Amino acid sequence: MCAFKYNPAASREVYNLESGKYAQQCMQCGLCAVTCPARHLMDYTPRQLFKMLFAGEVDKVLKANTPWLCTSCCLCTVRCPRGIPIIDVMHSLKHYHFEKGTKAPVATLSKVFFDSMMKRGRVFELGMTNAYYMKSGFGAIKDAMKMQDVGMAMMKAKRLPLAPPKKVKGLGDVKKIYDKAVALAKEGH
Amino acid sequence: MAKKIGVYVCTGCGIGDALDIDKVTKVAEKEYKCPVVRTHAHLCGKEGVELIKKDLEGEEGVNAVIVAGCSGRVNTDVFNFGPSVMVERVNLREHVVWCHPANDEDTDMIAEDNMRMGIVKVQKSELPEPYIEEGIVKTILVVGGGLVGLTAALEAAAAGYKVVLIEKEASLGGWVAKQYKQVALRPPYDELRENDIQDIIKQVEDNPNITVYTSAKSEGISGGPGIFEVTINQNGNTVKEKVGAIVLATGAKPYDATKLAHLGFGRFQDVVTKDQFEEMASSGKITRPSDGKEVQSVTFIQCAGSRDPEHLPYCSAECCVGSLRQALYVKEQNPDATAVIIYKDLRAAGQYEFLYKKAQSEGVVFIKGEVVGVNEAGGQVSVEAEDVVRGETVQVDSDLVVLATGMVPTTAFGEEELTVEVKEGEEAEAAAAAADTIIRSDILNLQYRQGPELPSLKYGFPDSHFICFPYESRRTGIYPAGTVRAPMDVRAAIDDAAGAALKAIQCVELTAKGAAVHPRALDFSFPEFNLSRCTQCKRCTEECPFGAINEDEKTYPLPHPTRCRRCGTCMGACPERIISFKNYSVGMIGSMLKNIEVPEEFEEKPRILVFACENDAIPALDIAGINRLEYNPWIRIIPVRCLGSLNLIWIADAMSNGFDGVMLLGCKHGDDYQCHFVKGSELAEIRLSKISETLDRLRLESERVQMRQVSIMDYDQIPKILDEFAEKLEELGPNPMKDF
Ligand code: SF4
Ligand code: SF4
Ligand code: SF4
Ligand code: SF4
What we know:
Strand order of the largest sheet of chain B: 15-21-16-17-18-19-20
Distance between the termini of chain B: 38 Å
Low-confidence stretches of chain B: none
Shape of chain B: elongated
Largest sheet of chain A: none
Helix content of chain B: 25-40%
Mean pLDDT of chain B: 95
Strand content of chain B: 15-25%
Bound molecules: iron/sulfur cluster
CATH topology of the largest domain in chain B: FAD/NAD(P)-binding domain
Helix content of chain A: 55-70%
Largest sheet of chain B: 7 strands, mixed
Distance between the termini of chain A: 47 Å
Radius of gyration of chain B: 31 Å
Strand content of chain A: under 5%
CATH superfamily of the largest domain in chain B: FAD/NAD(P)-binding domain
Oligomer: heterodimer
CATH architecture of the largest domain in chain B: 3-Layer(bba) Sandwich
């Protein structure tokens, strides 16, 4: 038989995440899907993502770009008739992703963006791009070559400086805020 | 007592401004010589009512009052002067000044004609005297001791009525008693609760007002409301009980799962019905029948046999909620077990939404789709379904599959028969329409000429007036409630029980007064038969929609007045015209229409007679007036109790009196009928088909007489219907009989 097999038990771990349990209450109305401003870029809308969870397709959920493209705009969350805090579910999924060490390009991008940001308080585009391709493995180098033209054009237009930008003022304070947030999260807030 | 008519014309509500009131009062004074004729600017006010009361009490000695003003459907309490004063209302407002141009000769003519009809009606009427049967009892019989029967019994007993409850099983509780847990009836509605049926049973058993017979059934019920005599057979002994009204609460049976082989039943041991599953849950452990192992995964298939043209075409209403409940049993036994529900639509409306959410948060998985196959795979049952949300065929393997089977009313089991032998010839069509389908389900065993059980309409449910008046059956005084009436869940069934108990109480109270029950509640008139002229044609016996007329030994009609709903269908059916009410008769309506002034042909003022049913068409005409919708001024309206009371002689009279056309406005008939008297409007339409042959023979176009089905909501259509009919008549030209 070639029919797709439901395996609801497989998703149990996801439901046990901090905000994972809320996903269970989705009734597939699709309101989030039509609301989301980023839906056209997403592999799956939030609704589809939740349906995949019900069916037990955790791998697909982990590879989906949906949580990473979520802008935390909160539009879906205020409209969901089931009152599901969809943004929170997205955050939980992102954490879960790192926990599992899953590879997904947009997750990698997020990570290098964040690291670059924490170093100077602002992004160093060229450094971040390099880091992205390095981290993404062998295939990505090929992709990087394909993008050469674009990179050159941007450099000519002075949109891609070779030297890293200056640190922002008060970077230490930003770090403190971040560390505090991490500590709070660890305490379970 | 000789009638002394007082006529009171109200000039308020714009009536005085729009009409030439002198013309209207002159009709009463000069044409009909009414002894007292007065006008008042605000008759429904205190002063106006006093004016009438003074004439009633004073030396004028008025004993019949005609109020000409607003519709008879309003201010009924204001113009009620007690049972000894006849009151007739002549509509000058909704049917005249509010729907026809002011200060117009034609509008005045309508008012004058309405006044003529009102006076003639009073002249031809008598005050009804209530028919009070001897030895009326107010005890209520409840048939069926399940949740609905028990609740109905408790409700009636709490209201102070004696109750006799019969249950065919040895113990009370019915289907609900077999359940493990119950859905919540109170907020927050999301937890299951312990089954409390045993408490309810105890309350019933301890209630001094309730007599319970278990292992008992009705062997025969004779009589009628207030005077039913029930023969109860309990374990072979017979007991007789007298009761006043009956609540039928015998519930439903699960659909026969052996017909569901396509869903695996009978093919695989681990495919069970919801009732088998409930039994397992009650017994403490949910296991696989094949190997006795505790289940780790359960799949529920919804609509098993329901909403399926091959099986039960209807929705069984309870199984969605039932499966939510049962899926929670699975989670209760083992939170790690999986439960999947495959559904077409999850019909868990209202507060059941909370239960649905609860099931979801416990991890129950829902698949919207249609099951396409059930097979065995690796020691599990594998269900294949078209998942409409995923847009593909999916497969769910589980230890156990539960079929959410639907419900079949207990009244559906038995041989079907028609109450009336459908014969050949003239009356065949009317007989066919009048015939009821009776299923010999061996529940009530009525000793009625019309068959032993309630008539059924569709799918074996006893016919209740499901669109407008649930609980009302076509056998007066017998009120079906709960799942025998319509598929429903526990909460709806509890409400139903209370509703039917109230209906039964109303019935015994009204019957004790000699009054009709719904829809003519408090009507004291009843049909009287002048049997010396009866030809024993049986039209009345067969056409009475309520089985109120039996036959005596000599095959004369034998009316049962307490079963009668006062619709007048018998009166309309009788070719000899020997059936009449004190205040409603063939002669009375005939005189009313003959007293309408029909102008000569050269005056070019056609006349169109409309017989309008009081239940929907008259209110619709009133609403048309309230909305100031204008229609043809040649129309004259006569309200009738039900189109079923239409006697063909009226149409012949109308034509020979020069009316250019006749229109009947009655309720919708057919399977989803809205006729308050179920068969009335249908029978009228059939009678009408007879008259068209006669009209053709007289060289009168049969289009001159037409019937339209309208509901109260069609008020905005009515002017169009009437105007188009008037146009059609104009095309046909004047009635050639006019000048004879
Ligand atoms: S709006 Fe809420 S309930 Fe509807 S599909 Fe999205 S998450 Fe599910
Ligand atoms: S919060 Fe995220 S998922 Fe929701 S609408 Fe905004 S971008 Fe889309
Ligand atoms: S329809 Fe009239 S004539 Fe015929 S049996 Fe009935 S009462 Fe008699
Ligand atoms: S037809 Fe109507 S009025 Fe006549 S006996 Fe039956 S219920 Fe009564």
